[in-house]
C-alpha cells in the first residue's frame, strides 16, 4: 500500500510544512490575533506531530523486517554530479524514525504548560527540529545526511539560547561550536570520499548504497577518514573526553529540549557509527576498536563518579547519559550480533528512559523552579504517583531486569565479553556505580521528611503529566519483558552489517589512489 | 568588423548610455537623481542579461584586447544584477542623508563598465584600464559624503592604497612584458611555453597577483578594508563588498588560467599563502569588532580566502566552484547590507552590532532575514552558503590541497563564532530600541536575497540547482577553452 507513496518524504517534511504554515499565519495575521495564535500554536503542532507519528507507525508496520536492504526507496535528481536526493530505511534506521516521531508529541505536550514565552516560535523550532532529525535517519546520500545532521544545530541553538536557563548563552555557544568543529572534519572526509569514488568507481557519487557495496578505501586512508568521522560522531554521542558540552547544554535547555537532546540527538552519533564508520571503514574500525573500548569504559566509570557528585538534578542525569552512551559505543564496536543489537537496543531504550527522567525533573521544576537536589526531599508524602513513576524510571536507568535498560546493558556486555572480558568487567562495575548515583538522587529527592516548607503546597502530577509518564513507563516495561519487538526488526540488517564487515576484513583492498 | 562590434556590445551599450545619462542629469537645473537612478538600474539589468539574450559567438575585439565568452557573460550578469540591487538600495539612504545626487548612479555605471572590461580583458593593458576605470569611480563613491570626516578619510585611504596597488600591478606587467615580449594573454602563454618559468616572469606574476590582492582585499593586502567599509556610506559599502570583488576575483582566475597556466606550481603558492592568511585574518579579526560594517569587512576578507581555495586548484571544477561560491557570496552580502540599511532610528542610522539586540521581538521578519544570511555565511546546510563551500572546496581536494581545505573548514568554525554573536543578539537578548519601518525597496531586496540563500533553489526534482550548476560549468569551460 505504502510502496507507491513517497512515504519517507511525507514523514520527513510534514513537520517542516507545519512550521512554515505556522510562520505564515504569524506573518499574515493581524497583530491582535497574535495572542490567539500563541495559544493555538501548540495544538496545531501537536496535531502535526501526531500525524507524523501515525504515518511512522504505518510505515514501520509495512516494513518487511526479513529483508536486510533499504526499503521505501526514493530517488530524485538534486544537485547533479552524483549527488542526488535519496531516501530509504533499513532495519536499523526505521526504529530511530519511529522513536523521533514518538518522542516529539510528548515534548510538545510537555511544553504546553512549561514554556512561558514565545510559544509560537518555540513550536516552529520544534517542528523544524523534527524534520531534521528524521531526515538524518532516512537519508541515503552522504551530502543529504550531512545537510540534516548539521542543520540540527540551528534550531537547537535557538531552543537552548532563547528558552534555556540562566547560563543559556554560554551553553548554546558551547554546544554549537563543539559540534560544528566535529562536523567540519567529517565534511572534509566526505569531500575525500566523493573525490575518491570518482577515481575508483569511474563516476563520482555520494550514494550510500553504492559506496557501502563497491567502494574499497585503502587501509591507510581509512584510518584518517575514520578519525574524521569519529570527531563528529564522538562529539555528538558524546564520548569521553569530548562530552563536556552536554551537561551545560542539558542543564540550560528547557525540559522538552533536554528530552530531544538526550532522546534523539545523542543517538545521531551512534547511528552514524553504524551507518558510516563500520561499513565504509571496516579495517580502521577493527584496528581502532580497542581505543573505543577503553574510552567507553572510562566514560562509564568516570562519568558515573562525576554524576554522583552533582548537586543539580539535570546535570546528574546528563552525566548518566554519557555513561549510558558508553555502553552503546562499547557494544557497537564488538562487531558481533549481541554487541550491535545491544547497542541499538540501548540507544532506543535510553531514548525512552532518559526522556522520561527529564520529564520527571521537568515536573518538579515547573512547580518549584529549581533543580537543586538539596532543595527537595520527602516528596513521596506529597506526590505519591510521581514518586512511583520516578522510581520506575530510576530503576530502568540503573538497568533493573524487567525494564528496557537491563536488556541493552546485558546484551552489550555479553558482546563485549566475547572480545575482551576486562572491558565487560569495567562496564559491569560501572553499572554498580550507576545504581549509586541513581539511588542517591532518588533518596535525596523522594524519601525522608519534608524539610523545606516551600514544598508543603506542591501538587501531584496532572493528568497530562501522568499520561506522558504513563506511556513512557508502559514502553519501558514492554521493551524490558519483550525485547524481540526491537531485535526482530533490526536482526536482518545487523546480520548483513556483520557479514559485510567480516568479508571486508578478508578481502584485500585495492592499492593506490591515496594522496 | 560588425562581428567585432557585437562582441563588445554590452560595454558599448553601457558606455553610451552612461554618458547620455550624465548629459541628461546635467541638462536641467532641477533634481533628477531619482529618475536617473531608476534608469541606471534598468540599464544595469539589461546590461547583465545581454550576454545571455544576445546570441553571439565568443571572440576578440580591438585586436585581441578584449575576449568575450561564456565566462565573461556569466560574470557580467552577476555584476550587473548586483550593481542594480546596490543602486536601488542607495535611494532612501542618500535621501535621508541629503546626499541625493544623480552623479552617484552615473559613477556606478562607469565602475560597472570598468568591471566589465576587467572580466573580458585579454591583455595586460586592457586589464589595467578596466581596473583603473572601476577604481576611480569607486574612490569617489567612497568619499561621496564629502562633508563627513570618516567618509573623506576612507576615500583617501582607499585612493592611496589603490594607487599603490596600481603601481604594483604596472610594475608586474612591465616585468612580464620585458621577459615575454608581449602584453597579450595568449602570446604570453605561448612565450612561457617556449622559455619556461624565467625568474622575471615569476616576479612579474607575483607583482600582478599582489596588485590584484588589494582589489579583493586578500590578506596581507587587506588593511584598507575595515576602515573603508566603515567610513563609506552604507549602500556604497554594500556595493564595494559585492560586484568589484567578483570582478577582481574573475581577473585573477583569468590571469592564472590563461597566461600563466604553465607555471601553475608557481602561482599556486602565492594563491595558497594569500588564502590561508585571509582566512586567518578574517576569522580572528572579526571576533573583536563591534561595528557591523567592520565585521562585514573582516567577513569579506575571510570569504575571499575561501574563494581563493578553488582557484588554487587551477582546474575547470575549481573555476566553476569559485564562480558558484562568489555568486552565493554576492547574494548574501547584498542581503546583509539591505538589512543593515534597515537599522534606522528616528535620529539616523546606527551600525553597532548591539543595536540589533532583541530584533526578533521588535521586527521578526528582518530578524529572520539576518539569521538566514548569517547561517548561510557560516555555511550550515541547507542554506546556500554550504553549497558554495562544498563546490569551492571539493576541487581543491582533487588537486591535492586537502590540508588547505581542512584549514578552511576549521577557520569557518572560528568564523561561526562572530556570526553566531549576531544571531545571539537578535534572538536571545531583550530589545532596547525599535527601528523605524524601512522603505519598501530595501525590504524587498532583503527578503528576495533571504529567499535566495534559503534552499528554495535546490528543492529536489526541480532541476534549478542543476541548471545553475551547468551555467557555472559552461562559464568555467569557456575560460579553459580559450
Descriptive notes:
The complex is a heterodimer of chains A (515) and B (482). With 515 residues, chain A is mainly alpha-helical. Chain A is 76% helix and 3% strand. Chain A has 20 helices and two strands. The longest helix of chain A has 34 residues, at 168-201. Chain A is globular and about 70 Å long. Mean pLDDT of chain A is 85; it is low at 510-515. Chain B has 482 residues and is an all-alpha fold. Chain B has one domain. A two-stranded antiparallel ribbon of chain B has the order 1-2. Chain B is globular. The model of chain B has no long low-confidence stretch (mean pLDDT 87). Chains A and B meet through β1, α5, α6 and α7 of A and α16, α17, α18 and α20 of B.
* Proportion of beta-strand residues of chain B: under 5%
End-to-end Cα distance of chain B: 21 Å
What's the overall geometry of chain B?
globular
Number of strands of chain B: 4
- Please give the largest β-sheet of chain A: 2 strands, antiparallel
Structural class of chain B: mainly alpha
Number of strands of chain A: 2
Low-confidence stretches of chain A: 510-515
Number of helices of chain A: 20
Please, what is the average pLDDT of chain A?
Answer: 85
The helix/strand order of chain A is HHEEHHHHHHHHHHHHHHHHHH
The gyration radius over C-alpha positions of chain A equals: 22 Å
Q: Please compute the radius of gyration of chain B using only Cα atoms.
A: 21 Å
